[in-house]
Structure formats: structure tokens, C-alpha cells
Design brief:
By secondary structure, the protein is an alpha+beta fold. Helix content is about 55%, strand content about 10%. It has a 5-stranded antiparallel β-sheet. The chain is globular, with a radius of gyration of 19 Å.
């Protein structure tokens, strides 16, 4: 249409498990456009579920006051946009529906690990963009560790112990990330699921269905993120979905 509203492209993977690949062949696309009365108009659709939404705005200009204050400089953009990306991941890491669908107990540790999975998925995409991608990745991690330090401090932990706790959590994140990296490099679905079972579900019994659901969700999300260029990534032109719901019978 000729309107200047915001369009949302919803890229959705089929249920089931998808080996990591740089292709969208098995996926469908639905384009939703905003109408004048605030509703949505469906342009085209095929069989869809909802792991991720990708949004695109027709208005790419920056407000004049941002230019005056220098907030469009490269360093400012990196700091601002990387913090927004991390906060999107942190929000997802505290999302009740995600934990409920996975049958995963929500604790400080599982929230941290789920948040880390989403940061890792974005980093997995950013790092293919060379120097620019790495700068954004580094800024994301810097901001994440700062926020983690504030979170730990807010829990009343003594100043002497804060750095120790943060370091231990960093090691947890990096250890899990290295296992996921290895799983992708070796195309090992088994290794990937083992990392999720151990580090996210903490080896809990009857977690197989939850692990399978989380694995499928991450594979779908990464394939869909692979369709975005660096501009779409750093400008957060996507919204996280949720994993498939694990039924009680799935856990036995």
C-alpha cells in the first residue's frame, strides 16, 4: 500500500527440529500491514506458528535533537543500540510464558541462562559481519556484565563477593556459549541438546521434552535471524516469540 505506517514481516518456522542451516526453504512468510484505523490487513499467509517477528519501519530518519547532541555518532549508536538489544534479551529471559511452555523452573540461575541464550543467538549472527559486528558484540557484552553486576549488588551481596559471583556467572555463560559454538561447528544436534540439558535445565529429570522444545525454538530463531542484515539486527527490528508448549504427557 501507499501508507507510511509500520509493516511487520512475520517469519515463522514449522514445528519439529531444524538442523542449523543458512536457508529459509522450509519457512513461510506472512506480511501484516497497519491500516488507517489501527487494525491489520493480511496480505499473504501460509501455515504459520510464532517463534519470531521481524519489524520494519518506513521512517528511517533520526530526530534533529539526536543529531545536535551527537547521538548519531558511531560510538553513540553502538552503545545505545547494543544496550537495547541486551534489554530485549533480558526481558525474554524473564518471560513467564517461556518458562511455562518449557516446563522450566524459574530461578535466578535459569533466568540468567535463558537470557544468555538469546544474547548468544544475536552474537552468533553479528559476528559474521566482521569488525562492525564484533564492535556491537563487545558493546553488548560490556553492557550485559554491567547490568549483571548491578543486579548482583542489588541483592545485597557484599562488595567483596560481587566480583566473585559475577565472574562465576560469566564463566557459566562462556562455558555454555563455547559448547553451543562447538555444536554448530560440528553440526551436532546431540551436543547442542546436551548443553541445554546441563546448563539451562540443570540436569533435571523429565526435562527431555523441554530440551527438545527449546532446541527447536533456537534453531528456528537463528535461521530467521540469518535473514536479517546488520542494520535490522542492531536496530532491533524483531520481536522474540516463545517455544512450543510442553504438555504434561510430554514429560514422561
Amino acid at each position: 500500500g501507499g501508507g507510511s505506517g509500520v509493516g511487520t514481516v512475520m517469519l515463522v518456522g514449522r514445528r519439529g527440529f531444524v538442523r542449523h542451516a543458512r536457508t529459509l526453504n522450509a519457512f513461510s512468510v506472512r506480511l501484516m500491514t497497519t491500516t488507517s484505523n489501527g487494525g491489520t490487513e493480511q496480505v499473504s499467509t501460509q501455515n504459520l506458528s510464532v517463534p519470531l517477528q521481524i519489524t520494519r519501519s518506513t521512517n528511517q530518519s533520526k530526530p534533529w535533537w539526536m543529531r545536535v547532541l551527537g547521538l548519531t555518532s558511531t560510538d553513540s549508536v553502538i552503545i545505545r543500540q547494543s544496550s537495547i538489544l541486551v534489554n530485549l534479551c533480558r526481558q525474554q529471559g524473564c518471560r513467564d510464558e517461556l518458562f511455562q511452555n518449557l516446563g522450566l523452573e524459574r530461578t535466578v540461575q535459569t533466568e540468567f541462562m535463558v537470557t544468555g541464550l538469546h544474547i548468544w543467538m544475536i552474537w552468533n549472527r553479528l559476528r559474521i559481519f566482521g569488525k562492525t559486528g564484533h564492535r556491537f558484540g563487545e558493546a553488548m557484552f560490556d553492557f550485559y556484565w554491567e547490568q549483571l553486576t548491578q543486579d548482583v549488588t542489588a541483592k545485597g551481596i557484599s562488595f567483596i563477593m560481587v566480583s566473585k559471583v559475577v565472574k562465576e556467572m560469566q564463566q557459566m555463560f562462556l562455558g555454555n556459549a563455547s559448547k553451543l559454538d562447538l555444536a554448530l561447528k560440528t553440526h551436532s544436534e546431540e551436543l547442542f541438546k546436551q548443553a541445554l540439558a546441563k546448563n539451562v535445565f540443570l540436569g533435571a529429570e523429565n526435562s527431555d521434552a523441554g530440551v527438545e522444545s527449546l532446541y527447536a525454538y533456537m534453531m528456528e530463531a537463528m535461521i530467521l535471524l540469518d535473514q536479517l542484515d546488520i542494520d535490522a539486527i542492531i536496530n532491533s527490528k524483531f520481536v522474540w516469540g516463545v517455544p512450543a508448549k510442553v504438555t504434561r504427557s510430554d514429560t514422561h
